[in-house]
Amino acid sequence: MGSRASTLLREEEIEEIKKETGFSHSQITRLYSRFTSLDKGENGALSREDFQRIPELAINPLGDRIINAFFPEGEDQVNFRGFMRTLAHFRPIDDNEKKSAASSEPPLNSRANKLQFAFRMYDLDRDDKISRDELLQVLRMMVGVNISDDQLGSIADRTIQEADTSGDGCISFNEFMKVLENVDVEHKMSIRFLH
Question: Whole-model pTM above 0.90?
Answer without folding.
Answer: no
